[in-house]
Amino acid sequence: MADLEVAFLEGAPKDSFVLTNSGTCDLDAAAITLDLSTSASGVIFDVTGNGAGTEVFQPFEIVSGEGYVVDRPTVRDGDRLVTLRLKSLPRGETVAFTVDVDDTRGSRAITVTDSELSGATASIKTPAWTASKTFEETAKLRVPLPTCS
Fold first, then answer.
1. What is the pTM of this model?
2. Is there a contact between 43 and 117 (Cβ–Cβ < 8 Å)?
3. Predicted confidence (pLDDT) per residue in 16-46, tens digit
4. Are 135 and 141 a contacting pair, CB within 8 Å?
């Protein structure tokens, strides 16, 4: 079985996304895309002090598993989509990044809670298959992947 867990962790001043291969087999080269454009609260990445975000901002920074990442993606202020191209992600391993995330429709733009990510998606694409899952009421999801070969 192969699964990818994606978790969003609200933090101050940095929010985090943690992607973990929680399956029993390795994930070969893949592109993992987090698409916030369909989130319930219009969530955006806030990476500069003079853009679409509110108050505090934090640039995109890979903090774990950088050796699995092909290249660092460019994330601009106000972006709602980020794609990490991975060389591989062995079972039990994690890639994590920090960034500031703000909502554009809620009453507290600087704090993003579980349900505000509702509707956002995580997708995985390889040369052989694609899989995706939508965030629901929590800021954690599990994308089921095709079985190991």
1. 0.90
2. yes
3. 999 999 988 899 999 999 999 999 888 888 8
4. yes
